[in-house]
Automatic annotation (TrEMBL):
Top-level taxonomy: Bacteria, Pseudomonadati, Pseudomonadota, Alphaproteobacteria, Hyphomicrobiales
Biological source species: Bradyrhizobium diversitatis
Annotated Gene3D superfamilies: FAD/NAD(P)-binding domain
Domain annotation FAD-binding: ranges: 6-311
Pfam families linked to this entry: FAD_binding_3
UniProt xrefs under InterPro entries: FAD-bd, FAD/NAD-bd_sf, Flavin-dep_Halogenase_NPB
Protein name: Tryptophan 7-halogenase
Keywords annotated in UniProt: Oxidoreductase
Length: 372
């Protein structure tokens, strides 16, 4: 049976970056990800300062950005019929990027493989259990085949929906935000992402490379999707969104085979604790925030960098872990307050359920459990 220093389960940005950084530091790393082929994914927006952070990680080739789309501004129609426009021209780090998510993951995977991480893409970690005080046993499956391996240390980077009964943490959800998204051919020349609100939620529209846009409709999962999966139904539901209606005026119905629908959860959640003696959580499984904050990619990469650095120095002490959790809890509580204020600022439909419930909020920020 293969034995590794580190097993990284989950090959999104958090897991891929951690695997590459640990392997670059000379450790024996296993990286496992369930997805063999990926459908459309969130075309994430990354801020100019996050672009610089990716450069500083020095994992990707110098020209990695060319696979993605430069974005020079952002249009925010939250809480007002008059949009606010942000231009990155004066930002010290220059422009932002609309990521091609699949290519970004491909680039990080190449980095991990280049640093000699052992990768199992298309394999699901079916069971993860401690087999002694010092070792984890992981059962992997890919449909036909089952394999076992062992690792001294476990890094879980399995995203915001994951559930791991044998690892000792609790993960709490703070709202019921969900999304329905459609990937359509891009028609507008203006490639700035934008946000608009409507009666039952809000919309985020972002360009993605290869001349397409993704329209995300966020809603309260308890109320169900606000429209059917047709462009006609989407157009009708979002008729009050001026900017989106202009974009729609050039989209030719549903016949185009490039129109692809997908859906998922977008809830805010926090795990406690996020690390133990021989395990830790990275990225969304540790902490997930509302896509409105556009901070998920940065947190995922920052977690990977911070944790791998400490693990390579063998310096992830109990105190360091507790400090990390305490500061995560504090910043998450501040974030929840900010989120609540942001949703409360949208008053045009303040008597309708989505806005009354502030995007499906379930608890007050003060209800976050204290550590210890
Ligand atoms: C609609 C939406 C829009 C967003 N927009 C933005 C944005 O504009 N900017 C931004 O910065 N962030 C954005 N985010 C957040 C961002 O996408 C996430 O924060 C980021 O993807 C987290 O990365 P991760 O690696 O932690 O998890 P994920 O990307 O979710 O990756 C988890 C991986 O784990 C794998 N996995 C799960 N279980 C197993 C298992 N048992 N065995 C093997 N593999 C497993 C999955 O296949 C997956 O590849 C958005 C999120 C959503 C939902």
């Amino acid at each position: 049976m293969a034995t590794f220093d580190f097993a990284v389960v989950g090959g999104g940005p958090a897991g891929l970056a951690a695997a590459a950084l640990l392997a670059r530091g000379g450790a024996g790393v296993l990286l496992v990800d369930a997805a063999r082929a990926r459908g459309p994914r969130a075309g994430e927006f990354i801020h100019p300062s996050v672009r610089s952070f990716v450069h500083r990680l020095a994992l990707l080739p110098e020209r990695w950005e060319e696979a993605h789309l430069p974005v020079h501004g952002f249009v925010n129609g939250w809480a007002s019929a008059i949009s606010q426009e942000t231009d990155f021209i004066f930002h010290p780090n220059g422009y932002a990027l609309a990521l091609d998510r699949r290519r970004f993951e491909g680039q990080l995977l190449e980095a991990a493989v280049g640093c000699r991480a052992d990768t199992r893409m298309g394999w699901i970690a079916r069971a993860i259990e401690p087999c002694s005080d010092e070792q984890w046993r992981i059962t992997l499956g890919n449909g036909e085949d089952v394999r076992h391996c062992e690792a001294r240390y476990l890094l879980l980077a399995t995203g915001r929906q994951s559930f791991h009964p044998r690892v000792n943490f609790r993960r709490r959800r703070y709202d019921r935000l969900a999304f329905l998204a459609v990937h359509i051919p891009r028609v507008s020349k203006d490639n700035r992402p934008f946000i608009e609100c409507f009666e039952n939620g809000w919309v985020y529209v972002t360009p993605v490379p290869s001349d397409a846009s993704v329209i995300y409709v966020f809603f309260d999962a308890r109320m169900g999707p606000p429209c059917r999966r047709t462009v006609g139904s989407l157009r009708q539901t979002l008729a009050c969104c001026d900017r989106l209606s202009t974009l729609f005026s050039d989209v030719s119905g549903d016949r185009n085979e490039d129109v692809k629908w997908f859906a998922g959860t977008a809830h805010s959640g926090l795990a406690t604790p996020t690390a133990g003696k021989n395990w830790c959580l990275l990225g969304d499984v540790a902490e997930s925030r509302d896509p409105l904050s556009a901070s998920g990619m940065y947190s995922a990469l920052q977690d990977a960098s911070r944790v791998s650095e400490r693990l390579l120095r063998d310096d992830f002490t109990t105190t360091a872990r507790e400090d990390m959790d305490a500061s995560r809890q504090q910043s998450f509580a501040e974030y929840l307050k900010m989120r609540e204020g942001y949703y409360a600022a949208e008053t045009r439909w303040s008597d309708l359920p989505f806005w009354v419930d502030k995007g499906g909020s379930m608890v007050e920020a003060s209800a976050i459990p204290a550590l210890g």
